[in-house]
Design goal:
Residues 1-27 form the signal peptide. Keywords: Signal. The protein contains 6 helices and 12 strands. By secondary structure, it is of the alpha/beta class. It has one domain (3-340). The strands form 3 sheets. It has an 8-stranded mixed β-sheet. It has a two-stranded antiparallel sheet with strand order 5-12. The longest helix is centred in the middle third of the chain and has 24 residues, at 133-156. The N and C termini lie far apart (40 Å).
């Protein structure tokens, strides 16, 4: 199926399901291999956002993934590496702002909006780039809400209720802050997170959803190699960072990178891709990736499930896992304390 047809099918399916969606939300990661050489080795492709600067292979700590080598304080944080932009598209373009009639700025309220474990949304730009904060701030709030809807609708599939616990104001409007980093701060993921930490965005009770005004990546996020079911799981703390650049601004990519921050998909999952993703489509977190580029299996036939988490809810996200199942005995991102639970 060509990309245009695939996106039209997804749009039809999602709208039919009653989910509000913008054009930007269609910037979903590619669902096939293609970011590899004939020998199966990963290669760089700046047009699709496959930029590996600052990432090093670290089998001891990160399995087949990467360690973010440039992090300050010798912190060991893994990454799946950059997610590719959809085939036939480029990260060098910018998504347009959401139309005024489609803007949604308010999140689900939770307490005072600031205390406790929360997701802070940031608009990030390098100091040598003009600010577009005023032009995009309400679009960013809308895309964050689209990501939240993915988590909510996916929880409904297992009879539960989950929402992203955003930082918000007294009127429940999602708090979006502008963070200005150095000219080289948007060149690679480690530099971005280091410079944000220097600005104070390094709280252990925060995960940071980054909308970076740059054209380097589609999306990239950190994950901790920890599949223990205990509340002490490393993915249950911050700071964690999930970066989405302008060519892929939208709810899908933001939800994908946040789920890495929440701990999905662990390498021990039943349908692991062996690269921090999954192989059973359709699914927000599934595609054929490095290092194995496994074949995909289309278990959830509804293509609208491209905007849902965890096909069959057996790998990384379920509000009601069966006793003795993988998610009952291993890390389940639906239990992460950065999500609102009833």
């Amino acid at each position: 199926m060509n990309v245009r047809k695939r996106l039209l099918v997804l749009l039809t399916a999602v709208v039919a399901a009653g989910v509000a969606i913008t054009t930007a939300a269609l910037a979903a990661p590619s669902q096939g291999s293609g970011d590899r050489t004939a020998s199966g080795r990963t290669y760089s492709d700046s047009v699709r956002g496959l930029v590996y600067a600052g990432l090093v292979k670290d089998s001891k700590n990160c399995g087949p993934g990467y360690r973010i080598a440039t992090l300050a304080n010798n912190r060991t944080v893994c990454s799946h590496g950059p997610d590719p932009a959809p085939a036939g598209t480029s990260v060098k373009t910018s998504v347009q702002p959401v139309k005024a009639k489609d803007v949604k700025t308010e999140a689900v309220c939770d307490g005072d909006g600031t205390s406790g474990y929360r997701v802070q949304v940031l608009y990030v730009r390098a100091s040598d780039r003009a600010s577009r904060f005023g032009q995009y701030v309400n679009s960013i709030r809308t895309w964050a809400n689209e990501a939240d809807d993915i988590y909510y609708q996916s929880a409904v599939e297992t009879g539960g209720n989950r929402r992203i616990r955003f930082v918000h104001d007294a009127s429940c409007v999602i708090d979006v802050r502008e963070a200005v980093i150095q000219p080289n701060g948007d060149d690679e993921f480690g530099a971005t997170t280091n410079q944000l930490a220097n600005l104070g965005y390094n709280r252990t009770d925060r995960k940071y959803m980054l909308f970076v005004d740059s054209n380097v990546y589609c999306g990239i996020g950190g994950i901790m190699n920890d599949d223990r079911s205990a509340a002490g799981n490393a993915n249950n703390n911050g700071p964690s960072y999930g970066r989405t650049d302008t060519g892929c601004w939208g709810g899908h990519t933001a939800a994908h990178e946040l789920n890495h921050n929440l701990g999905g998909v662990q390498l021990s999952a039943p349908n692991t891709s062996n690269g921090w993703h999954c192989t059973d489509e359709y699914d927000v977190m599934c595609y054929s990736d490095s290092p194995d580029y496994p074949p995909m299996r289309y278990i959830c036939a509804d293509q609208g499930h491209e905007y849902r988490l965890d096909c069959r809810h057996d790998d990384y996200y379920s509000t009601n896992p069966a006793a003795g199942s993988y998610l009952a005995t291993h890390w389940n991102s639906a239990n992460n304390r950065f999500l609102i639970r009833p």
